[in-house]
Design goal:
Radius of gyration: 24 Å
Structural class: alpha/beta
Helix content: 10-25%
Number of domains: 2
CATH architecture of the largest domain: 3-Layer(aba) Sandwich
Number of helices: 6
Shape: elongated
CATH topology of the largest domain: Lysozyme-like
Bound molecules: zinc ion
Largest sheet: 7 strands, antiparallel
CATH class of the largest domain: Alpha Beta
Length: 359
C-alpha cells in the first residue's frame, strides 16, 4: 500500500487542506513537515479516559492548555520506527509497565529526525501522552536517537532551538524542560497526577542537551525549574478517602458510580517505631495506647500529600481519626502499617482510609 513517503505526502495534503479552512494564524516560519499519526475516535476516548482517571479533568474533547515544552529522545534509532511507535491509538502489549496506568499510546506533536527535519504528527493542542503528571499542559518534542549509539545531532539541536522559539512565541509557555527533569514538578501547581505511585525514571535528553538549550534560549527569560525537594531520604505519598459501595458491579448504566480512585484528603499522620499489634490496643481498625516511641507527626497538605525526612529504619504509619489511630495494613508478622526507609531513597506510600467503604 502506501510507502512511508507517500503516506507522509498524503498526510501533508490532508493537513494543508484542513489548514486552508481552519487555520487563521500565519504559517510558521520554521519548515515543519506534516506527517500525521492516527487520531481516531478510539484515541479521543482513551485520551478523555486518561484525563479523567489521572487528572480528574472532564473536558468534552481532549485539548491541552500549553504551558510547557518537554524535550525527549525516542530511544529508537530510525525515523520510521519512531513514527510507527506513536502511530496507533493503543499502546502495544509490550509496554506492560505504563500499560497498567492506561492503554492510550504515547505520542507528541513533533518528531525531529537526526538530520534536523521537523515532522508534525498531531496538532499542538491535542492531548498527547508523553510526560506523567503534566500531559494536560505540555507540548512534547521527540528527537530520533538515544544517549548511546545514536546521540542527538547538531542539526537536531538547532531544529529544537528554532521550533521551541516559535512555540514559546505562539503559546507563551514559561517552561522548557527535559523529560528527565519532570519529577521536579511533583509539588508544582501544574502537577495533576492522582496516583503517587505512577512514576517512571527518565534520562532523556540529559543535562548537557538541556543546559545548551537553555543557554541558547536565555533571551526568552523562561522560568527556572522548581527547586528539588529538600527531602533526600524518608517517606512521601498521599492520603485518600474511600467511602461507599466499592464492590465490582455489572449493572449497565449504573448511576451510582463509586469513586474507586478515592478522594485526596487532609489528615495528620503519626509515624511510630515499628509497632506490633501486641504493642497497642486494637478496636476494629483503630488503635490506641501505643507502647512504642512516637517518631514524629506530620500534617498532609489539602491534597493529602506529605513528605518527610527520616533516618534509615523501620516504622509504622497511622492516621489520626475521630475513633482512634487508623491502620489497615499488616505484614505477615503482625506489624501495623509497616514501611522501611533505605539509605538515600524516598519510600512512596499510598494511604487508603477505607473504614467507611464496602468491598
Ligand atoms: Zn521521554
Amino acid at each position: 500500500m502506501f510507502s512511508s513517503i507517500s503516506l507522509r505526502q498524503f498526510g501533508y495534503l490532508l493537513l494543508s487542506l484542513g489548514c486552508l479552512v481552519a487555520c487563521k494564524t500565519s504559517a510558521p516560519t520554521t519548515n515543519v513537515q506534516s506527517w500525521p499519526i492516527k487520531w481516531d475516535q478510539e484515541r479521543v476516548q482513551l485520551s478523555l479516559d486518561y484525563m479523567q482517571e489521572h487528572y480528574g479533568m472532564n473536558p468534552d474533547y481532549p485539548i491541552i492548555d500549553p504551558q510547557m515544552i518537554v524535550v525527549h529522545w525516542t530511544a529508537i534509532p530510525t525515523l520510521e520506527a519512531s513514527y510507527n511507535a506513536f502511530y496507533d491509538s493503543r499502546l502495544p502489549g509490550s509496554r506492560a509497565t505504563i500499560g497498567k496506568a492506561s492503554p492510550l499510546n504515547v505520542s507528541v506533536p513533533y518528531l525531529i529526525d537526526q538530520d534536523g527535519t521537523i515532522y508534525q504528527m498531531m496538532p499542538d493542542t491535542l492531548f498527547a501522552r508523553h510526560v506523567i503528571g503534566l500531559n494536560h499542559c505540555a507540548i512534547g518534542i521527540e528527537n530520533v536517537g538515544d544517549g548511546n549509539e545514536h546521540p542527538l545531532t547538531e542539526a537536531q539541536f538547532n531544529a529544537n532551538v528554532q521550533l521551541i522559539r516559535e512555540l514559546v512565541k505562539k503559546y507563551d509557555t514559561r517552561y522548557v524542560i527535559g523529560h528527565h527533569e519532570y519529577q521536579q514538578f511533583i509539588d508544582h501547581p501544574l502537577w495533576k497526577e492522582k496516583d503517587v505511585n505512577y512514576l517512571t525514571e527518565k534520562s532523556d535528553p540529559g543535562d548537557d542537551f538541556m543546559q545548551r538549550l537553555r543557554s541558547q534560549l536565555s533571551d526568552l527569560n523562561l522560568n527556572p525549574l522548581p527547586e528539588k525537594s529538600a527531602v533526600q531520604q524518608g517517606v512521601a505519598g498521599q492520603v485518600r478517602w474511600y467511602e461507599g459501595n466499592l464492590m465490582p458491579t455489572i449493572t449497565e448504566g449504573a448511576t451510582d458510580s463509586p469513586n474507586r480512585q478515592g478522594d485526596p484528603i487532609q489528615r495528620t499522620l503519626r509515624i511510630y517505631e515499628l509497632t506490633h499489634r501486641d504493642e497497642a490496643v486494637q478496636k476494629s481498625q483503630f488503635f490506641q495506647a501505643i507502647q512504642t516511641k512516637l517518631v514524629t507527626e506530620i500534617a498532609t497538605d489539602s491534597l493529602g500529600k506529605f513528605e518527610l525526612s527520616l533516618p534509615v529504619g523501620q516504622y509504622s504509619l497511622l492516621v489520626e481519626e475521630a475513633d482512634g489511630l487508623f491502620a489497615n495494613q499488616f505484614d505477615s508478622e503482625g506489624n501495623i502499617a509497616p514501611f522501611s526507609v533505605q539509605a538515600d531513597s524516598i519510600t512512596q506510600i499510598n494511604v487508603r482510609i477505607d473504614y467507611r467503604a464496602v468491598y
